[in-house]
Write the structure tokens for this entry.
Amino acid sequence: MESGKAQLVVKAPAKINLVLKITGKRPDGYHDLFTIMVPVTIYDTLRFRRGGSGIRLVCKGRDVPVDGNNLVWQAGEAFYREIGSEPDVEVTIEKAIPVAAGLGGGSSDAAFTLKALNRLYGNPLSSARLHAMARALGADVPFFLSCRPCVARGIGDLLEPLQKWPEFWYVIVVPPFGISTAWAYGQVKLELTQPLENYIVKVQDSLCSDIVPLLENDFETVVLPSFPQVAEVKDLLLRVGAAGAIMSGSGPSVVGLFRDPEKAKVACLSVKEKGESFIARAYRGEGVGQAEKA
Ligand code: ATP
């Protein structure tokens, strides 16, 4: 274990889903998916400081639990259990990623906590071990370990990185209410979701050239009827020039895809009254390599 590094600051990005197909329900209650996930440049900032005793959390910016319900705490606990040490870390989270918005903030924080602690302690855990721990923390957590555009299958943990990814500016609008992922899964009628085989062929043929014709999210079938504001945001993004628009995850965030940054900026201003709005690009960092020593 290295003792020289006592502090680390990490930027944990959000994600968007541009395709999300629910393909089945497993006996353990998880759902099987086919999804395309892209990490984007909206970040929580996590500061890890070794010392004291236990795991101490401080969160600024947004309202999330700072006890054992926080995924950072759970990731920390899993890490110390795995290396067989008593916890001794304070974590400050500057939370910029909207919560329960379909942007994966909690999962990203958890993955970057695993990577940061591993680095802070001299990399005692292998990538395979980190992946297994990430999967136990949540279906989206393994994605944030590699943190690059991926096709994900299984519960979202079988990841196939996409070597090339088209350039876009993403205007992300977060209507002012949260949607519980558990509620959204409970509403989906699996027999109504479309068969996947033809779709996958279509995706493989056109990925890396243009994602716009492929945008699809099965959760829209349950979220749009219950939350018409989400449909309004989608329509507005298209009217102000998006090449395509799609809800991310189980919502309520909606992503508009723009090829032209100027159009994206103007669009971002026009959708402001619909919710918190961001312009983001695909995150190009390299996992915890993005971390910098404080
Ligand atoms: P997904 O798309 O993966 O379902 P999401 O973006 O919709 O995720 P999150 O922002 O990750 O949802 O938060 C979901 C729940 O997790 C919230 O109820 C929140 O209180 C809890 N939570 C626990 N730890 C965190 C954290 N570090 N950041 C955000 N939420 C957290």
Remarks:
- The radius of gyration is 19 Å.
- The pocket of adenosine-5'-triphosphate is lined by residues 64-65, 69-72, 99-107, 109, 140, 181, 249-250 (CB under 6 Å).
- Residues 105-120 form the longest helix (16 residues).
- The longest strand covers residues 31-50.
